[in-house]
Amino acid sequence: MSNGQIHFEVFARRQQNGSLALEMATEDRARAMAYAEELLESGSCAVRVSKEVLDEDTGEYSSVTILTKGVAAPKRSKAPLEEAGPPCVAPADLYSVHARQRIVRLLEGWLGRNTATPFELLHRPDLAEKLEASGTDLQHAVQKIAIPEAQAKGVSVHEVIRTFNSLIERAIERLIKDGRRGALADFKTEPFAVACARLLDEPEGAYRLGGGVAAYLADAKTWGDKIDRLLDLADCAPADPRPRALAFEVLEQPLGEILGSKAGVAELLGPDLDLGGSLAALTRLAAGPAVEMLEKVDPTIPRVMPPLEGAARRLSRWMEGSYFQAVRMAIGRRVIAEIKSARRLRPSDANAEIDVLRALAMALTAGAGKMLSGDDIRDAFIERSSMLISAEFVTAAMGGATTAQAEVRALLRLAENVTGQGNKSQAAQWLIGSVTALRFEREMRHPAEPPMGRLGVLADLQRAFGRVDLPDADRQALAKRLGDLGGMVEADANVVASLTRSTMPPVQRLTHLLKMALGESAPLGPAATRAKDAAVKLGKSPDIRADLAKAPEVIERLRPLMQAAG
Fold first, then answer.
1. Does the pLDDT at position 409 exceed 60?
2. 62: which strand partners?
3. What residues does 69 pair with on adjacent strands?
4. b/e code 490-509 from CB counts within 10 Å (16+ = b)
5. Distance (Å, rounded) from C-alpha 149 to C-alpha 159?
6. In angstroms, rounded to a whole number, what is the distance separating the alpha carbons of residues 370 and 385?
7. For residue 478, is it within any domain?
8. FRET pair for 272, CA 20 to 30 Å: which of 16, 19, 396, 532?
9. Are residues 539 and 475 in the same domain?
10. Are residues 111 and 172 in the same domain?
């Protein structure tokens, strides 16, 4: 990615004398360009696609226009040039997605206490009057935004405060006036579908329809109730494509804001979920079909990704269709932001956290395109992986290990679930440090355990290391160390010599030696080499040749082993 998050906005002017209005926000450039062409074909006068890049330090977006098409707007009389002002200079500017995101940051506490979203604040006259009467909350919000704005513009803080206060007063006055004169939709007197059709070609149709939606949510007491009411309206949306598009454009604004708030998500998904459980439930909400597909092939998924109930389950069914795309993407961005953060997903259980991350990686990758791009997903998990191989997390992951072998297996599981070359290399270093430690060597050479059992453990680890995507040099170093340890274990107990001199039938002795030589019951290395030499020598003996001649089926069973051993 560039310096920050990137998305693309599609604007359209549906009437010659109208203004450009936001039609879509997406992180998929190709989808934005294709949708702009569709708008032109469906009758829009003009379209514009802009690329928005978030500056992580300032929280501001910079915009670059990448496409303009259609009939130019009529020329208007030029106004005198003014000095650059704040981003929002007219009440209508407060309704943009960027302005609403800023309102969330500035008034998060007040909105939470009133169980309201920025969408409702901007469309409900009673709520706007309540904020205005609060005094302190509004004043603090203006001060928080005025100071950085004044520094950026090189003007006094008081001047910026006066500008914002004037803008807020005009916005509230406009909203109250529209409410009193009945300009906002009212679903008590007019069905939602009828209002959508009537307001479709109105210059401020989305704003007026939003007033009706906000009023419909007004007496809902909980976030779950609000979501249910929004879905009730979705059920009643008109069937005709154009007014239906307007309906969902308006409905997804408050829905996305509810799902973007911590309180809203906690109430919708359940307050008892930790961060990992919450992200898993959000992923199931936005990518239900992908999760259900994974459940059929991986039985661990249902244990990690909790089921949805109530309003969440109802919403997930809507998310399976083509609507609420912006909401899906907002959920995806939130999940990715948390994955990239330093917060533990399962603070009390490092191994359970690895399970959650594995499930999230599979589900997000399977649902890529609808929620996020593949690059965004990969970058997020590379960043999270750097936390997984930190000393703190590694210590936690090995916390339940009581033996050196258990520690190695815990590190192996960790290495299997990190991504990114740098992180893989660091995971390999943890593994190398563990298998070269004196504790691991002493445990593998301890005579209390049968030597063939210890050789089998080393062979199993060697094969497991070979399956992990580690740097070649590190994988070879691990394989050599386990092979050398196998040689020590074999030499300590004289395993090959004991097998050669044992009273077992010659064919059985040969079979054991061949399995050691192939790395099945002993690691490849000195022990396997000695077993191979002994197998070759034993295979030439008259006794075994005679036994093999009597049992052709044994020859067929041993032939693959003998050929593999050379």
1. yes
2. 53
3. 47
4. bbebebbeebbeeeeebbeb
5. 10
6. 24
7. yes
8. 396
9. no
10. yes
Q: Which domain range does residue 137 map to?
A: 87-264
- Whole-angstrom distance, CA of residue 64 vs CA of residue 499: 76
CA separation for the pair 258, 312 (Å, rounded) = 12
Torsion of CA 198, 204, 209, 210, to 10 degrees: 170
**Which structure tokens are listed for 211?**
């007033």
Structural domain contains residue 301: yes
**Residue 420 has which token pair?**
């990114």
φ/ψ of 174, rounded to 5, equals -60, -45
pLDDT tier, 1 (very low <50, low <70, confident <90, very high otherwise): very low
Q: Do residues 259 and 274 both lie within one domain? A: no
- C-alpha 549/C-alpha 47 separation (Å) is 84
Asked if residue 294 lies in contact with residue 301, where contact means CB atoms within 8 angstroms, the answer is yes
pLDDT digits (tens, 9 = 90+) for 43-52: 777 888 888 7
Model pLDDT, residue 342: 83
Cβ atoms of residues 445 and 492 within 8 Å: yes
Based on the structure, what is the number of domains in the chain? 5
- The lowest-confidence range among 21-25, 57-61, 213-217, 357-361 is 57-61
Is 213 part of a structural domain of the chain? yes
List, as one string, the DSSP characters of 7-69: EEEEEEE-STTS--EEEEEES-HHHHHHHHHHHHHTT-SEEEEEEEEE-TTT--EEEEEEEEE
User: What confidence score (pLDDT) does residue 532 get?
Assistant: 87
Which of these three, 355, 388, 421, is where a domain ends?
388
pLDDT of residue 414: 93
Mean pLDDT along residues 403-414: 94
For residue 38, pLDDT beyond 50:
yes
pLDDT tens for residues 66-85?
A: 888 877 655 544 433 334 34
Last residue of one domain, picked from the residues 218, 234, 264: 264
Same domain for 106 and 188, yes or no, is yes
d(CA 511, CA 89): 85
Q: Is there a single domain that holds both residue 171 and residue 152?
A: yes
Assess whether 351 and 297 both reside in one domain.
yes
SS3 19: coil
In a domain, 428, yes or no: yes
pLDDT of 331 > 60? The answer is yes
Helices (H) and strands (E) in the chain, counts: 30, 4
Query: Residue 488 class from Cβ within 10 Å (0-12 exposed, 13-18 middle, 19+ buried)?
Result: middle
What rounded mean pLDDT belongs to the chain?
A: 84
Closest CA to 211 of 120, 149, 336: 120
* pLDDT > 70: percent of the chain: 89
Task: Give the sign of the dihedral formed by CA 368, CA 373, CA 374, CA 377.
Answer: negative
Let me know whether 292 and 379 are in one domain: yes
The Cα–Cα gap between 501 and 40 comes to 87
Residues 6+ apart with CB under 8 A from 346: 274, 275, 276, 352, 353, 356
Range from 204-208, 265-269, 498-502, 537-541 carrying the lowest mean pLDDT: 537-541
